[in-house]
């Protein structure tokens, strides 16, 4: 399987398992996504370090791809059915928070289909010729992977519609009154789109995907399996309880689990060079030093919850007011900090604003007397 990267996208990386990428089609400027801003170890987006190392631990087959059981099974069936019919797979949209394995899954699918994959990201498809160049270079049955597909511009989207539906490309030849539209046939291919924001995709584009699939956060047990697998590849010995400690602080996200594993390994190498194995106590020591608490919260998460409790009696408080109080941009708060707090039941979104939950009070060891009646009234619901 050949992997080709197009454009300076988040995914234009060197994959040591694969042939070197061909020269980028576009040297276009990449806009920073608002979700790129979270600092530190819990950043969900890829860092350069992740990029170099994750590619060596990226699963290559369905067999190696851990978790997302239901999704894997249904994709496996669609894939086999398409193969039996001798057709390429329907266009597929993968959505879910960063670091859950969308790019990995697209690469696994291409490998399972035994076909080439061309990888790009929406910010690299600025000009019409960027997408046209890629479409014209596709082989029959190829997979085209477009990351951050919600960020495609209108013109590019419109070029994609006939390509996706009828496998044709409408090219305008000439200018003004003498302009003609030339319909160029394309090979049948499969588009795999990935996004963290399914809601931001225009409905005409979404309608052109035969399958729309969501990736979920991973359970602790699944993350432990991922950590053990990565440790094996990195030739690191780790005891099961240490893997559990790292898994429990990884916010349900394989990218974070792999990153924490590497940092814990570094810590043990330097501070406990005599130890042949990462023990639970050492993993805890390292993660405490990195200020990642047992719930996987970092100092900003805790500041957010504590500000809500101390300044706003636990809420309800509006997004803008809260953002101003902790000196963050409201969108960053919403896109980067809130999802995990909501998902883990520490924060609650109501029509009147954000509220902390009793679980957050328990986690931060704050007495229930410090919060508003609204939060206190939610108590029975959450402890039931
Ligand atoms: N299901 C999985 N099993 C094992 N490792 C995984 C899995 N999903 C993701 N990973 C690891 O996490 C890293 C991030 O995954 P990636 O596919 O880049 O996430 P996304 O594209 O959703 O942001 C990968 O490099 C891979 O090592
Ligand atoms: Mg990705």
Task: Name some characteristics of this structure.
single chain, 384 residues, alpha/beta, Rossmann fold, Helicase, Ruva Protein, domain 3, Arc Repressor Mutant, subunit A, 6-stranded parallel β-sheet, two-stranded antiparallel sheet, 15 helices, 10 strands, 45% helix, globular, binds adenosine-5'-diphosphate, binds magnesium ion
Q: Give the beta-strand count.
A: 10
**Spans where pLDDT lies below 50 across 5 or more residues:** 8-37
Whole-number mean pLDDT: 87
What is the CATH architecture annotation of the largest domain? 3-Layer(aba) Sandwich
Bound molecules: adenosine-5'-diphosphate, magnesium ion
Helix-and-strand structural type: alpha/beta
Strand order of the largest sheet: 1-3-4-7-2-8
CATH-assigned fold name of the largest domain: Rossmann fold
Query: What order do the SSEs take from the amino end to the carboxyl end, as H and E?
Result: EHHEHEHEHEEEHEHHHHHHHEEHH
What's the main sheet like?
6 strands, parallel
Query: Going by CATH, what is the homologous superfamily of the largest domain?
Result: P-loop containing nucleotide triphosphate hydrolases
The percent of residues in helical segments reads 40-55%
Domain unit count: 3
Note the gap between the termini: 52 Å
Strand content: 5-15%
Number of helices: 15
The value of Rg in angstroms is 23 Å
Please state the overall shape, judged from the principal axes of the Cα atoms. Answer: globular
CATH top level assignment of the largest domain: Alpha Beta
Oligomer status: single chain
